[in-house]
């Protein structure tokens, strides 16, 4: 059993990670730290978490913690990753990994020098809906993918994550928050790398210096074209669809873990296959996947290098928005 400590025990930990740990077979939540010490103690009592740490350093150094899960605000990821690496602890970090690709490169270097596994919490790679889409595409059931689209919409007006509109703490608005999930899903589904990015985005009074909705055009190395659309000003939706030369796969709410989703394969305008799939175990499968990886049993689907690829794309997306240009992306692996 791998004993985890969470740095940044907030809304996401309560809403998603607690259930993931409860339902996992090889991953146990043992300790936590959060910026508000009183809330941390209250969380530990309410959710029966054995250990509360006064500082991130204490959590990382504890012999009772085997791996560190970083769920703090984006701007704290770099110092927390460096801290965990220095303590020799395997690291699973929420996305986006950092505020920019230079930060992520420092994380990768620190993890490599310390010899510790470093993964990204891209839980949607463990969604059965995404797995099945990936399988159908790999089997050639729609021919070569030519178009791909992912949309993630949610209403952030009353979000308990008060830091998400603070550019000092957040990588950005919905592009960084959920657009990174869409980008990663399309890269994973197509087994392809993004080489160019073009962005249209808008902010509003509530979002301040970050965007509230955006459309991102992606050029892939294979010649496929992708689009990612995101907003924090609409009801929840997470559409994923891929159009190939011989068919199309559509999954409405394909990234949700809250209810079963319908996965549809069409050819020549007719439904060839339609199945209902539940993603409710995606978080526990992600946690156990990472635990197995650090124990030498198999590979984790979202290693840190994937986080660098995604961060390069985020950097390009924001540069494109601000400068009104098409931005090129380096698809090569990290050094």
TrEMBL record:
Gene Ontology molecular function terms on file: nucleotide binding; oxidoreductase activity
Record flagged with keyword Oxidoreductase: yes
InterPro entries reported for this sequence: Gfo/Idh/MocA-like_OxRdtase_N (IPR000683), Gfo/Idh/MocA_oxidrdct_glycsds (IPR050463), GFO_IDH_MocA-like_dom (IPR055170), NAD(P)-bd_dom_sf (IPR036291)
Record's keyword terms, sorted: Oxidoreductase
Segment forming the signal sequence: none
Residue ranges of domain Gfo/Idh/MocA-like oxidoreductase N-terminal in the record: 3-121
Domain of life: Bacteria
Pfam family, one: GFO_IDH_MocA_C3
Record-annotated GFO/IDH/MocA-like oxidoreductase domain positions: 131-249
Stored Gene3D superfamilies: Dihydrodipicolinate Reductase, domain 2 (3.30.360.10), NAD(P)-binding Rossmann-like Domain (3.40.50.720)
Protein name per its UniProtKB record: Gfo/Idh/MocA family oxidoreductase
